[in-house]
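[Automated response] Your request has been received and processed.

Submitted sequence:
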Amino acid sequence: MNSFIHDDFLLDTESSRILFHSHVKNLPIIDFHNHISAEWINENHKFNSITELWLNGDHYKWRAMRILGIDEHFITGNASDWEKFKVWAEVCPKTIRNPLYHWTHLELKRFFDIDLLLNEKTAATIYEQINEKLSSDDYSARSFLKKSNVERICTTDMPNSKLESHISFNMKKESFTMHPTLRVDTLLGFDKIADFLSTLKKLENTTSISVIDWYSYKNVIESVHSYFHENNCRLSDIGIEELNFSAINDSFVDFVFKKVLSGKLISNDEQNLLKTAVLLEIGRLNAEKGWVQQFHLGAMRNSNSRMFSKLGPDSGFDTIGDSLKISEVVRMLDFMDKEGHLPKSILYNLNPTDNSAMAAMTGLFSKAGTIGKIQWGAAWWFLDHYSGIKEHLNTLSSLGIISSFVGMITDSRSLMSFTRHEYFRRILCSIVGKEIQQGLLPTDYDSIGEILTAICYTNAKHYFNFDS
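Generated structure:
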């Protein structure tokens, strides 16, 4: 039979095929942003079924099923693993032109060598074949990463994490390295005072520092940052819908912070003041220790309040927020730069109307000897699809320098999602190969292949100092 996922999938010119197969196909993967469980990796978790591996926690698939009217019982409810898989198989053919359709069949092919299209007729066969394989040691959590040729994986970790899984795993001398990433959202959750104070109590226990004012809170942040650094963390990350920069001074920050400690609600302007202060403090620490800071900007999260109350966060009820206040992002970076505390920074946007502004921003705060200090992050979440990746690459090429780009991430909770790197690489080679065929680029496969190798692998390796 003719396979939908064949060797030249998405490679529509001879030049694209040469670039992909000769230069980027077999490169290792550095995945510097995802939400995969560090505990799974450390314990080499084995999955009971393809449903546990593939559907549990996958809000992309959940969202598609809801749009098509599937009852929540078969999505996050108590339906059996087989029932949930069968429903997904029935839904899958209806996702054509959505990235899920390509991702689904890439994952079936790469990890289980299945060429069948997933649908109602093939569901039982595919379910049985995969579950049989999952019972073997060749399909444990680490096996998926090894099959994907992962060299480095950076998980996402809360400030109060003791990083036991990372510490334990990195003593095992595996073929790949696992790094934590300090996710700082909860450090600036001043819009929900009760939640923030609960988080603060955990941090006080973790750091053995009693927080009585802004200055002691800075000590907590520094203690957390140092602990993560000692345990191989080299990145921070924040997900924030809208960044609003505020001019600060420590005495006024301390005054507002003490209101928070007393349990008082604070105004939006006061929230912005404290958030700015925390972000500047983390930026300073990042710069001192040579970390990279990531900003995921513009997601409007938990938009369905009724379902949020039932299922909680990360359940597929997020959407694209308003266009960013680009001037506020620039003011934040400019302040860090003036203070001499601007670390390498990767900025992700979710609203495509901000694409050109984000690409142009990469040229604002350069540094001699550092390639691509400010990065426009890969097409993210709702933009992580065939046309979104193409638009991202075309815009970055036009307004920035594509050869300095640090490349793709999975941003996923699934161990099968690493085919997204292959998907990205095929789209990249398709774009560049087509321009070679059109005469817009020279037929210089060695030189251009070297640039594509950098985008797909070596730029990230150098940017995060993973080569030292």
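Summary generated for your ticket: The beta strands are 29-31, 150-154, 177-179, 182-183, 235-240, 292-297, 299-300, 319-320, 344-349, 374-376. The mean pLDDT is 97.
If you did not submit this request, please reply to this message.
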